[in-house]
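Appendix B: complex inputs.
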Amino acid sequence: MPIVVKTQNAGKGDWAIIELQGDLEVRANQDMHDQFIGDLYYNKYGQPILIIGHHILQGREQKLEKPFAVLEKSKTNDGERLLDTSLAPSQDMSLLNATTGAERTVLDHTIAQEHKSSQRTEYTVRAICTKKLIFKSRPKPIIANVAKSV
Amino acid sequence: MESMEVDENIPQLYQRTPEDVKAIVKHAKLDERQLTQLTQALYFPSADVESENLRLLELDGHMLEQIRDGQTLHFKGGQNEKVVLCTDERTYDVKGAEISNSLLLVPNLKFAAATSTSPLKSPRTGNANASLERSLNDSTEDELEVPRTLEQRSVLKVFHEYFECREIKPRFRKLGELLQLTRYSGPENEFCIERKLLFSLTQLLDTVQCSRAQFMDGLRQYRAMQLDGHMRVMEYEYEYRTISLMLGLISENSWALDEVEREETISALIGIAPEAVVSGLFDIYTIPSERCPDKFQYQESLVARIVAQNILQPGLRFRNEEFMRTWQEALPEGMTCQLSYLRGLGICDKEGAQPCIRSLSEEQLPTSINDRMRALFKTKQKWTLDEMEPYMECFTTPTLSVSTLLAKHARSLTEGGVRYYVSKH
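Resulting structure:
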């Protein structure tokens, strides 16, 4: 059974990709959830500047040649829906199921399987990203030579 | 450094403040006047984001258009098949691509243009101005207080993988294979048909790895019709017999080839063949007449093929002229047979003393390219590109043509100015 990708209301709002070389890592096994990463600025020429910790990165805004769709998987866990859709296609299902037993062919089996798993998962296109900020250059260190002027 | 300090004071989650921003801008020796007014503070995803459920899918122009139009897409694939992604019209192969860079997905992030109240400067004119501006502003260091706004943005997920799509040819073969299981050969033989191998249109569409439009094409290609809610193809002989009866009505009623009447045809065959079969075949074999409204004409290529298939039984070979004569005679008057109609059904073998026509049905050949090549070269030693095409095109993709495939799987040689392909071994 095909997995549906819903596209209603896709592409609303500006979702962006920030591409960094390498990975963002934190010391030890610190919980990263909701932790502050850094500040994003733009200069008057539109160039993005990212400051993470005491590193500064200069990047560039880029149109994605091939845009990204953000898909979100969801499960239709309500059994009612599942029943509805699996029964709806036709009465053949009952025929298929009526003849359970050893004579089932492999093909039969896969098709029955495909039907059983019908509509369990579906995807929704949450947004489309058409642009990214890419930071390709090496991060430069920020040296605060004045001791605690803040 | 900034964040660590604050973390020590407050055990709660750190929230960026405008003061922190001001401080770091100063530390970084950035000229605040050269920045747009908005700073966006980025945060790692919250714990409640189920990041496992988020995927990035790379789109081509067609897919993007479909999504913008609100069209539904489908992932399709059985248990042992590689999954494909289908729009309403096209089919794509889906493959995961891993990257060492990190892609931070940030909802509602503002790009440069949206963060500035004045239009962005273009770099070229900007350089000249910048030096001027700097010299003007150098002395006025702290006089001008630039307003700075701070907005908080959460990253939704950090990706190291995305899915890329490549358009592929529809994978019909499963459709053909499923339909072949229950060939229809008349109501009297229906008791032999395994009921559980009968499938409805929806069931087939759901399982075959191609888009809806391509699926409909496939059904036409296999000449499938709906009987009692199931999609069926005919046994060749049965199809041939029924078509012959239908074609017989042309001379019986003295119709011109483009004056065929649908109702008349159907009612004339009542009692001889089931009505659904006759109307189904009629709709497959005819196109509306250009000359006479509400009348139809049979498609010469389809009629010629089913007739040829009846003559050219598997294993048989005919002398060229003999075959063409028999074939022509079996066609209704006004239709002409052409060798090109034999595409995928038979081949013309010129290797022997006398050229002959041989049956070679594409549908019966092995589905793996290596086995198929072996079978083809066993049937005939030398092939031209045109001759091979009907038997190879099922393996082609938009980037992989028949000649590329042959370059890999066969050896080519030129004889008398003609390029032939022969077995590699």
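The two ends of chain A are 62 Å apart (CA to CA).
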